[in-house]
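Before the break, one more example. Copy the sequence into your notebook; we will annotate it together after we see the structure.
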Amino acid sequence: MEQYELITPLSPTCIDVECQCRALAYAAYHIEHPEVQQLLLFTLIEKQHQLTAMLDDEHKAIENNNIDNMNIIGL
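Here is what the structure looks like once it is written out:
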């Protein structure tokens, strides 16, 4: 692995964003400082929106692929 690969972040996957959501939710639940908790919850909401968009895009790609496959086999 080249050093450049370690510096340049890859595009996050759905699993990455889901793990971030879980970590933010856990931290927000266990931290008692209200301002930090609020910041974590706002960040969690943003990450949930990101995850929803990613899952929608993934679902559309699968759906389009299924339609293309049906065209190939003549259905």
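The chain has a mean pLDDT of 83. DSSP finds three helices and no strands in the chain. Try to locate both features in your own notes.
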